[in-house]
Amino acid sequence: MKKYFLSLLFFVFSIFSFSQSIKDSVDLVSFMDGIIETQMKENHIAGGVLAVVHDGKVVLTKGYGFSNVENQTKVDPTSTLFRIGSISKMFTWTAVMQLAAKGKLDLNEDINTYLKDFSIPEAFDQPITLNHLMTHTPGFEDKVIGLFALDSSKLLPLGTIIKNELPERVRPPYTQSSYSNHGTGMAAYIVEQVSGMSFNDYVEKNILQPLEMGHTTFRQPLPRNLKNSMSNGYSFKNSFIEKDFEFVPLYPVGAASASALDMTHFMLAFLQDGRYNEFQMLDSLTLVMMKGVAHRHHADVNPMRYGFMDISQNNYEVIGHGGDTFWFHSLMALLPEQKTGIFLSFNTDEAGGAYMDVFEAFMDRYYPDTLALAKPIKVSKEWLEKFTGEYKANRHPHSDITKIASLFGHIEVLAEDDGKLKVISPEESLLYIPIDSTTFREEFKNDRIAFGKDEDGDIAFMYSGLLSIFAFEKVNTIDKTITQMMIFIFIVIITLVALIYWPLVAVIRGKYGSQTFGVSKIPAGSKGVAWLNYFFYFIFLLGVMFSLSSPEDIVFGISGSLKGVMVLPIIMLLSTFGMLLLTFGILGSSRYKTRSKLYYLLLSLSSVLALWQLYYWNFIGFNF
Question: In this structure, are 207 and 122 located in the same domain?
């Protein structure tokens, strides 16, 4: 319904003209007001802010809604601070490029050269470089535990945080982009080591102050002079619920707070050969390199730039960065050739997809796609089968208990009878038409997906045409959602049977006599070991469900209750081993009926299967 309404609104605004000039301020204001106010109403957003620059000028800054709902404080684009999330990374990458331009950093040098308090383990016979960090290709796993904090007590020195949370290397460098917060944090730490300044001091001295960004800071808690300018964050559950300030321990990757007007200064510097007024943020050659293509998954999808995300669409080059916290959702997008930039931010959790909807409407209005649709090639359903399967994003944890998050959000690719691929994600289902051997376009648009092959020549990867910061890997049978869910459901059923059946039989025997069910065929001690084993498993499941009643809370750290229940799988290792020993005795005895032997064997093997599944998802041991 939301997409339909936005399409209708766009049609109404553009009915008299195919495209409009962004220089028409009246049209720009009325169009953006309509789009943003519609988004805020439909998504229950408390407040938002917009800034547009073009041809060296600020053509629009505007606040929408409230920064404080209770006090009815309106958003002021000149002074109200919004958390900009991962757009913060662009300040880190700018700092890296400044130091590289001065010869203090070599983007192709092993980063261990610059790290003093810890080092990156050797792997894959290749070092990791700043080039890899800037393109999100170092090959790190993702880490989410502790990414946010409830208070300032977790704001440790940057080097200490990275050392304590060092991600594992899971693939060779430069093979695939896989968005890495900790990789960016390493780059910021290198800035500290090389400059001899704290990251906050460096950014303030070399970027914020010269750009006259007086309403922007990475500091947490906020400086006293900016505290009253900060917008509240909100969640919406029938009404707006005010949320506490979000602390980001790995602050260079997502802690910045900024006003819309300040962000116009940052955008203008990137769009004017690195210069803002008299300040040269980056020399023109360094900026050209930074905006250049640095990594590409496939020839027909957007590449990765040096720090910039490539979000090109409508056949226009667009670079920038998105940023999301729990309560704030932001986007900075630059069109270098058109000397245009747009910044958006919203202060409510329900705004997760709003900034992209607004940006796409902005592009369709002022920079519409005029390229004819790529011609399809005729293929058979059998030819399409090699692309089908289940895919998951390559950005996920590998070494801790949050690995299980990779089980959700899979994308399914199906072959249709009419020569199209159906791509089903949790958000939507789209049809794609083949235009060459590995590239497909959306049915009625030029938006593309592409596929890559493994060393054996089989289709193993899928790439989004618009978003270059990660790839999708084809899932094997074990990793399929249905496989893991069937294993889990089977074990839960066995658990409930084991916990209920024997006690129920004992109650009935006590009431009606032992002849009702015949003589017990399994020794009480053997039954006791099995019952306790499944009791531990059941309590473990309840404990995890209770501890993760709000799964996103794990980004704040591991609760004491979750740490406590992690002991139970270790106890299950001992009780399962005991069950296996008892099973051998039971199977080898002629005293027990066959069905009793098979039942106890089933209990033992099911427990082994349960332990395997817990091990597979890192729930055996204290992996956090």
Answer: yes
H-helix segments, 231-384: 260-271, 284-291, 354-366, 381-384
| DSSP element (H, E) containing 227 | helix 224-227
Domain count, the chain: 3
523 and 463 belong to one structural domain:
no
d(CA 236, CA 535): 39
Omega cis (within 30) before 223: no
- Do 134 and 163 reside in the same domain of the chain? yes
Tell me, yes or no, whether 451 and 495 share the same domain: no
The tokens of 548 are what? 């993760």
Query: Which residue type, as a one-letter code, is found at position 120?
Result: I
Tell me, yes or no, whether 412 and 453 share the same domain.
Answer: yes
Distance CA 202, CA 53 (A): 26
Sign, Cα dihedral of 15, 16, 19, 22 = negative
- Return the half-sphere exposure (C-beta side, CA atoms, 13 A cut-off) of residue 200: 17
CA distance 326 to 349: 6
Q: Is the pLDDT of residue 521 over 90?
A: no
Please state, in angstroms and as integers, the Cα–Cα distance from residue 311 to each residue in 10, 180, 511, 616, following that order: 21, 18, 72, 35
pTM of the model: 0.91
Same domain, 243 and 386: no
Hey, which residues does 230 pair with through a beta bridge? 81
Give me the pLDDT at residue 15, please.
36
C-alpha–C-alpha distance, residues 78 and 383, integer Å: 56
Q: Whole-angstrom Cα distance, residue 196 to residue 531?
A: 61
CA distances from 390 to 199, 266, 424, 428 (A): 42, 41, 10, 15
Show the domain range for 202. Answer: 2-366
User: Which amino acid is it at 544?
Assistant: V
2 has pLDDT over 50: no
How far apart CA 607 and CA 601 sit, in angstroms, is: 10
Dist CA 220 CA 257 (whole Å): 10
Strand partners, 65: 47
Query: Cα–Cα distance between 610 and 616 in angstroms, integer?
Result: 10
One domain, residues 456 and 524: no
Residue ending a domain, choose from 366, 389, 405? 366
Query: Given this model, what pLDDT does residue 303 score?
Result: 96
Digit-coded pLDDT (tens) for 120-150: 999 999 999 999 999 999 999 999 999 999 9
What pLDDT, on the 0 to 100 scale, is given for residue 19?
A: 53
Q: What is d(CA 263, CA 269) in angstroms, rounded to the nearest whole number?
A: 10
For residues 526 and 568, membership in a common domain is answered with: yes
